[in-house]
Amino acid sequence: MKHWKISDYIEVVLGNRRKLQRIFFALSLVSLAINFYIGTSVTQIGANPLLNQDLDPVYWIFMRLHLPGFISERFALWFDGLLVTFCIASMLWTRYRIFPIIFFVFHFLYFLEYNILSGHHYISIGLLVMSFPFIFSNNSRFTSMFILCRFIFCFMMFSAAFWKIARGNVYYVDQANMLLITTHINALVTGENNLLMKTIKWLLLHKSISHLLWIILIALESVFVVGFFTFRLDKVLLLAYLLFFVGGWVFFNIYNYDNLLFLLTLVPVLKLLEIRKYRF
Amino acid sequence: MPNLIATFLINLWRTDRKAFLFITTFLVLQVVLALMKLEVTPIFLYGMYSEKLPVTNRFSELKIFINDTPIETYRPSFRQKALLTTNAVNYEDMKRNDHIDVLKTRMKTKYPFLFDHWIAPVFGESIYNSAEDQEKFTVWFKQKCLEMAGITTGHVKLVKSTYLYNETTQRLNLIKHETLEDL
């Protein structure tokens, strides 16, 4: 298969459904382990009484039903335990739809709970969105939802660039410098002098270069518009996302590791599933 | 140029009408709500960092001190520090708003019709943080900070620090240090 058509994509996704499920839930388990390592499981956060509902009505319903308190006070340990258990069950017993369904429900609740307790609505949506197709037993519906995940991924990246371009942010020379200072405020106060801070200070001195870095990051997001039209440039999308991820991490402390799961929807990653020597 | 999304939707229309309806509704809502700058989970707005940051040489931040030592000394993870700092900022915002949930004030002033005819009758006070929640928060917050630092007793301070940026040395020099809370 040189250039993939939609029928090729469907064939590979469908033909490797169980393998995909195993890989996805194994990676989800890694993500949950990272959450635990950095102290963001529900049990570790605890029952924060000051909730951040913001303008999203889904969070209002969540509060109206008194779920934040119920989950974080009485049910926290069970909740975290069941989330991990159903993740493992979904990875091991791929024939049963019930495990991905329960995992999806629990992870949706975790997503709401974490955002409402953490004081900010983070958009680490990779795990939430990508776990959705696996709840369907109907194969054709599974592939349709898997392709929808690809479009959500492309929309997420492209619309992020769109807002920066539409609001004139891309032409705004000072944006990157102001962001670099606010991101590294503590290191700039203490006068840290490691390699990263030397680079940051150099960028702060050379405003045009930091602006160029900002433009490159926006360009890496913009390129995702092609994902709506063709599979041919998926290698570029893969590279663009990895560069964007590393750039966002190093320079602006953006750690949306969950969103790396979206890479499963790109052709070069799916091609790996076709290599027979890897058994999952 | 092939049009992947159109081909996908046409195929879906032919094979699975329910899935077609679900996916098109989702995609249309996603675009419409994004243009209206609204979020209704699982439809999100991906506009972070798109607002222009004003040029300034004065920077402020809310700092947390545990037993007079900055929180960074205890090496919290990025998310742990963000969780404590963001919640502290939200707490201070509500305190400055006469202990009334900032969302309530925002809805009353920005969306009075929605607030009076829909939100208030359906949700009442259940979606707002109360002054009592704020009091409980200080207990939770102090405990979380001490837990993170690995100690059982001590005191926690919330300090607003203001700095002046020196372009030549690329350093931020402290010009104001204001204790907002001593827990």
Give an overview of the whole structure.
The complex is a heterodimer of chains A (280) and B (183). Chain A has 280 residues and is an all-alpha fold. Helix content of chain A is 68%, strand content 0%. In chain A, helix 2 packs antiparallel against helix 6. The longest helix of chain A has 28 residues, at 139-166. Chain A is globular and about 60 Å long. The model of chain A has no long low-confidence stretch (mean pLDDT 92). Chain B starts with a helix and ends with a strand. With 183 residues, chain B is an alpha+beta fold. Chain B has a 4-stranded antiparallel sheet, covered by helices on one side. The longest helix of chain B has 19 residues, at 17-35. Chains A and B meet through helix 4, helix 7, helix 9, helix 10 and helix 11 of A and helix 1, helix 2, helix 3, helix 4 and helix 6 of B.
Condensed summary:
Chain A is mainly alpha-helical and 280 residues long. Chain A has helices at residues 6-15, 17-37, 42-45, 57-64, 67-74, 76-92, 98-118, 126-130, 139-166, 175-183, 185-190, 195-205, 207-222, 234-252, 267-273.
Mean pLDDT of chain A: 92
Question: What's the overall geometry of chain B?
Answer: extended
**Biggest sheet of chain A, open or closed, and with what strands and sense?**
none
What level of helicity do the residues of chain B show?
A: 40-55%
From the alpha-carbon coordinates, what is the Rg of chain A to the nearest angstrom?
21 Å
DSSP helical segment count of chain B: 6
Helix content range of chain A? 55-70%
Largest Cβ-defined interface:
A-B, 79 and 76 residues
Give the H and E element order of chain A.
HHHHHHHHHHHHHHH
Q: What fraction of residues of chain B sit in β-strands?
A: 15-25%
Report the strand count of chain B: 4
Shape of chain A: globular
